[in-house]
Amino acid sequence: MLRTNLATRPFYNERVVHLAILLLALIVAIASIFNVTRVVQLSRSDTRLGTKASRDEARAAELRASAARLRASVDPKQIEFVSVEARKANDLIDRRTFSWTELFNRFETTLPDEVRITAVRPKVDASGTTLTIAVIARAVDDVSQFMDNLQKTGAFRAVGSRIEEHVNEQGQIEALFEAVYLPLGGKAER
Q: Rounded to an integer, what distance in angstroms lies between the CA atom of residue 181 and that of residue 158?
């Protein structure tokens, strides 16, 4: 190698260049180490997630097969039987929740002074509770007033389907009529 320098004082720049190359190599080595560690971490994470996904897919397939077996084992006739029995149980519960106290409180607030109730027979069916009410009154207008008062409460609908009406030996009107009772205070249909 030829070492000539035309400067008045000889100065060789080799050390600065070597230092710059060493610094650049150090930066490249650090970046490479960082990248290698990140690749290893991501590879492990990918492997772990892949294993978990495989287990989850196997579990899902197992659950689908189990659900298919259960669906195949269900008997539609048995479901229908249980459904009918549940409807019967609900009907019994509805009948049991009928409140005589609430009904007689409503009668008390709507009953004119000249009318007496002699009998009340409820019949619970799908359309509601139909009451057959027997009353004794001094005049037909008193019975009509009672029926109007029941209708105005909103707890009764279809009031006034008179089944029977006649005068007894004391000259009083004996009337028998039906009304549909809505025990939860529903509004009357118009």
A: 9
Asked if residue 172 and residue 112 are part of one domain, the reply reads yes
Pairing mode, strands 115-125 and 156-167: unpaired
Beta bridge partners of 181: 129, 156
Tokens at residue 143, please? 């019975």
Say how far apart CA 184 and CA 153 lie, in whole Å: 12
Q: How many structural domains are present in the chain?
A: 2
pLDDT for 8-66, tens place per residue? 665 567 788 889 999 999 999 999 999 999 999 999 999 999 999 999 999 999 999 99
Burial class (CB in 10 A: 0-12, 13-18, 19+), 132: middle
**C-beta neighbour count of 170 within 10 angstroms:** 8
Beta-bridge partner residues of 116: 136
Q: Both tokens of residue 122?
A: 């409820």
Strands (E), the chain: 115-125, 128-137, 156-167, 173-181
Domain that holds residue 106: 99-181
State the pTM of this model: 0.47
Cβ-contact 155, 161 below 8 angstroms: no
- Is the distance from CB of 121 to CB of 156 less than 8 angstroms? no
Longest dimension (CA), the chain: 155
* CATH code where residue 129 lies: 3.30.1360.100
Using 50, 70 and 90 to split pLDDT, how confident is the model at 186?
very low
